[in-house]
């Protein structure tokens, strides 16, 4: 939590070239790789599952930050851990037993994250603060890349940082991060910024240089 980390979301990458896209963003300054798993039930979109995480693992040297937008999540935690995820983030809204899910993630040897939808208050995680390594504040409604930043969430970030006190817990921002919105959330106490469209715009696997400029601009 000592510096700002950029975690590009491969949701905005070329789906036919994920391995090369991961290698490109790492070479060009990404700190983590953010992997968005969607089930078409918890969120209105479908992406991929543990087999994709496993296939990508050899292409990612840094942290694989896996964001599970699935309900239920518990039946799949072991598969994602075995696939090589470093961080597994579940949604607070995805099931009735958040504490159990977070415990299960740590027992599998991963860092435990909890994500909060825009309508979910910071206080929803009051009693699990010691069970988390990362809190992901959704600054869009999850499901799609390229949506606009919901400014009301900045106050939630400030509140969470105060609630966390001196705990070494990351606050990650997911959705609508751009060079304009990044300073707002960083000032409020966020230290990991997920960015999809703002990283991948203007470039391609054949011409990845813009990714580097985009990361530096955030
Ligand atoms: C949204 C995903 C995000 C998304 C961010 O459901 O969790 O990670 O890819 O995309 P941008 O940065 O384009 O808002
Ligand atoms: Zn995400």
Report on this structure.
30% of the residues lie in helices and 20% in strands. With 218 residues, the chain is α/β, with parallel strands linked by helices. The protein has a single domain, classed as Aldolase class I (TIM Barrel), CATH 3.20.20.70. α2 runs parallel beside α3. Zinc ion binds next to β2. Pfam families: Ribul_P_3_epim. It comes from Paroceanicella profunda.
Topology of helices and strands:
Elements (H helix, E strand, L loop, with lengths): L4 E4 L9 H10 L4 E7 L11 H7 L6 E7 L7 H7 L3 E5 L6 H10 L3 E6 L17 E5 L14 H12 L5 E5 L7 H7 L3 E4 L1 H4 L8 H9 L1
Parallel strand pairs: 1-8, 2-3, 3-4, 4-5, 5-6, 6-7, 7-8
Helix pairs in contact: 2-3
The structure holds D-xylitol-5-phosphate and zinc ion.
D-xylitol-5-phosphate binds next to strand 2, strand 8 and helix 7.
Function: Catalyzes the reversible epimerization of D-ribulose 5-phosphate to D-xylulose 5-phosphate.
Catalytic activity: D-ribulose 5-phosphate = D-xylulose 5-phosphate
InterPro entries: Aldolase_TIM (IPR013785), Ribul_P_3_epim (IPR026019), Ribul_P_3_epim-like (IPR000056), RibuloseP-bd_barrel (IPR011060)
Report a brief summary of the structure.
The chain has 218 residues and is of the alpha/beta class.
The percentage of residues in β strands lies in: 15-25%
Uncertain ranges:
none
Strand pairing plus helix content: what structural class?
Answer: alpha/beta
Rg to the nearest angstrom?
16 Å
- What's the main sheet like? 8 strands, parallel
Provide the list of bound ligands, each named once.
Answer: D-xylitol-5-phosphate, zinc ion
> Average pLDDT, to the nearest integer?
98
Number of domains: 1
Strand order in the sheet with the most strands = 1-8-7-6-5-4-3-2
Succession of helices and strands: EHEHEHEHEEHEHEHH
Number of helical stretches of at least 4 residues: 8
Helix content: 25-40%
Number of strands: 8
Q: Please identify the top-level CATH class.
A: Alpha Beta
CATH architecture classification: Alpha-Beta Barrel
Keywords: Carbohydrate metabolism, Cobalt, Isomerase, Manganese, Metal-binding, Zinc
GO molecular function: D-ribulose-phosphate 3-epimerase activity; metal ion binding
Active site: 36 (proton acceptor), 174 (proton donor)
InterPro entries: Aldolase_TIM (IPR013785), Ribul_P_3_epim (IPR026019), Ribul_P_3_epim-like (IPR000056), RibuloseP-bd_barrel (IPR011060)
